Amino acid sequence: MTAQQTTVTAGGTPSGRPARPAGYWERIDRIVAAAPPLSDEQRAALRTIFHQARTTREAA
Predict the structure, then answer these.
(1) Are 15 and 29 in contact (CB under 8 A)?
(2) What's CA 34's distance to the chain center, in Å?
(3) Model confidence pLDDT, tens digit, residues 21-57
(4) Helix (H) or strand (E) holding 50
(5) CA distances from 54 to 32, 49, 51, 59, 60 (A)
(6) pLDDT-derived band at 1, boundaries 50, 70, 90
(7) Between vectors from CA 3 to CA 17 and to CA 19, what angle results, nearest 5°?
(8) What separation in angstroms does the CA of 59 have from each of 6, 48, 54?
């Protein structure tokens, strides 16, 4: 079994993110901020994917 690791933010509160090298999450945040917005077709595809996963879990 694996234990969940959380990092502590500068304010001293857990962020809920797994521990990573210094600057890792800041880099991810910059990459996400620079990405173009999703098109309506992309949003629809993502909704379909996540809805199917939830339906499968509920059926189990």
Answers:
(1) no
(2) 16
(3) 889 989 999 999 999 999 999 999 999 998 886 666 6
(4) helix 40-59
(5) 25, 9, 5, 9, 10
(6) very low
(7) 30
(8) 32, 16, 9
Token pair 């502590």 is at which residue? 8
Phi-psi region of 23 (alpha: psi -120 to 50; beta: other; left: phi over 0): left
- pTM here? 0.43
CA 28 to CA 17: how far, in whole Å? 12
| Separation of alpha carbons 9 and 25, rounded Å | 11
